[in-house]
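Appendix B, Record 12. Input sequence as logged:
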Amino acid sequence: MRSVVLSISILLLSSAAIAQSATPPALSSIKEADIKKDVYAMADDHFRGREAGTLDELKVAVWWADELRKAGVAPAGDDGTYFQYFNLWRNRVSAASTVRVGSTKLVPWQDVLVAFTAPGNVTSTVVYAGRASKAELDALDLKGKVVAVEVSPDSINLNVSLPERRYPSYVYRKYGADLLARGAAGIIFIADEMGEKSWPAVLPALTRGSYDVDGGPNVDLLPRMPVLWVHGNNAAMLKGNPAIEINIIMEHFSYPSVNVIGRVDGTDPLLKKEFLLYSGHNDHDGVRTPYGNDSIYNGADDNASVSGAMIAIARAFKKAPAKRSVLFVFHGAEERGLLGSRYFAVNPTVDKNSIVAVLNADMIGYNTIDSAVLMGVQPPHLNSPELVKMAMDANTEGPGFKLDTLWDKTTHVEGWYFRSDHLPYARAGYPAVFYSSMLHPIYHTPMDEAKVLDYKKIRKMAEWMYRTGWKVANAPKRPAVLPGFKLER
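Logged structural output:
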């Protein structure tokens, strides 16, 4: 009997030593070759870019569920499956919408771009402001009128990713609030050279419309001031205070999207009821306007790199479980506005209070092998100093990345903190951090293919995420959220 007790004591001491070790026991099972194989498969043309709300997104979800099953990772979705389905609502400007200036009818998307997916109805006259200064604009009577502005790129920072796609929104930020405050009933931007260049770049997104998980086709979007773009060669028709009629009509559609969720149970009788959550996304941009010789946006870095890392981490936890249980959530519809994570954060498939922390990653396979970013580190993005310390210690003990701190600042032009799946969790009160290797020239282009990624770096990022998760999943107490945590927007 004494020998049995001694053996149990040794076993418990050994388990405690493993749990507290700086090196997680299954670290060597995270292999570059396995990650590469999974990323190549996920980013293959077979899945046609995995656009949210399409059969291609559902197809890759089924494939991932099967890979989780092969790895011995238990299903943690709805009704004993790996899946959590949700409705993706699409709102689109109808082709029945009309814009008429004087006696000329402008064809939506060909002659005029509708900048916002929202209903609007205006009958008024056009005030042609041209390139008026602020003082000159202040002298104009704009109340109830549609103001036409010749765009000037002055003071607009275009040193950002995908500047052509973002230019119209930057122009609106420059002019919109002031013109709205002046009582304008609508705005027409007359495209400059950059505006003409951006036209085909923004057209796919504008014609697709906006997406949400809330409401439905019976819930209209709130009407807002119409904001239009016209080509520069149409400027003359806007002079002389012509009459204008704008009628923007909305239409709505519903599509299925899905989160894929796996679980590795913990070993501690009490702590196994709590969950560490790893977060990534399965979808990308699908098939769209050709760019060069390709029209399939495979999304190898964004975000097959993370999906490949997550299943490698799942296999490691399966080989050597931690005290707490671990969830692996492959979100749907991230590219449509973080919809899968927004849905899961409100409707988790486990007790909401049992989720102790969220480790999210997005794009981890590009840029120099020795650098990376951890976001959620600097106020006001910092919501859990304890979780951040675990992540920082894990980096020091393991891959030793040089961490770029600029991306987490509120002043960074990219606003990168607000563009991935950790955000809904942070807003819902979960401790959350975000791993990335930052943006790059092939971001959201068909050139983001498996063959261009750095798989040594992806393995290093996976190691960092695994080391952090091992700390969280074995810590005596869960990381706390800062009281009064509030983001800047």
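The two ends are 63 Å apart (CA to CA).
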